[in-house]
Every structure is written in structure tokens, then in C-alpha cells.
Amino acid sequence: MKNQTSILNELLATLEVAYSNAKGRHWMVYGTPFRSLHLLLDDTAATLRKGADKMAETIRVLDGIPLHTMTQFVDSSQIEEALTIPDALTIAREMRDDLNEIVAMTHGGVDAKVFDPTTENDVLNITSEIRHWILFFDGIISNWTPAIPRIPEF
Fold it and tell me: Cβ distance 68 to 17 under 8 Å?
């Protein structure tokens, strides 16, 4: 079974890749929903960056060493790097799916009681903010797909 710090590092890596995806997609948006999606991706990227920072600080408080290179993030992330430039609807769907994966990972860890109470509070605060942005992506794609908590392989 993985320890709490290992799970937090996996979440950190996934947050960092999601941040990179959000920022890259932000730069590539084109078409009719340009302004709304461009700004939504920028706001989402800021939330992900803040969440990653909190995650890394939490790892340090627990006397762990946070992952800190893009190679480490990509290797440990539960989502893939966005390597294509799709249309706006696909961008919104892929970003929503990335965010849902973070929520599912986190809530699966909570369900498995992996986190101490303070850490659990911290990670749930991050997913609460992320779920706010998921609503906006769902509005763009006119499709509600909730995150299903999954128990990570610990």
C-alpha cells in the first residue's frame, strides 16, 4: 500500500499536468467560444497552480519531498499531456475530463482513508474549487458527467 506522501505526490503530478494542459489549451482556443473558453481555461489554470502549490507544501509539512520536475510530473500523473490542438468543444471536454480525474483520485483516497484529517481537509478544499470549474466546462459542452470516486491502487 502506498503511503500518504506517495499519493499526494501522484496528485501533485496530476495537478501539474492538468495545469500545463489548461494553459496550453488556453493558448490554442479558437472559434466562436474563444473569449469564454479562453478565460475559463485561464481561471482553471490558476486554480490548478494554487492547488499544486498547496499539495507540495503539504508534502513538505509531512516531511516528504515533492516531485519537482516536469519529467517526474508526466511520469507520475494519472492524466496525459495534451499534445493536439482540437476544436473548442473537444478542448472543453478534455479539460473537464482531466478535472474529473483529479476529483475522482482525491475522493477515492478519502474513501480509502489514506489521508490524515488535516490533509483530507486540504485536498477536499482543492477539489471543491475544481468542481466549480467543472460546472462551467459542462455548460459549454452541454453534458453533465460527474466524477465517480475511484479507489486508487494503494
Answer: no
Give the span between the Cα atoms of 49 and 15, in whole angstroms.
7
82: left (phi over 0), alpha (psi -120 to 50) or beta: beta
Q: How far apart are CA 152 and CA 154, in angstroms?
A: 6
Evaluate whether 9 touches 64 at the Cβ level (below 8 Å): yes
Give the separation between CA 15 and CA 34, rounded to whole angstroms: 24
pLDDT score recorded for residue 146: 65
Q: Do 96 and 139 contact (CB within 8 A), yes or no?
A: no
Give DSSP secondary structure letters for 89-140: HHHHHHHHHHHHHHHHHHHHHHHTT-S-HHHHHHHHHHHHHHHHHHHHHHHH
Q: What predicted TM-score, i.e. pTM, was given to this entire model? A: 0.90
pLDDT in tens, 59-99: 999 999 999 999 999 999 999 998 888 888 899 999 999 99
CA dihedral 136, 12, 10, 131 (to 10 degrees): -20
Number of H helices, E strands in the chain: 5, 0
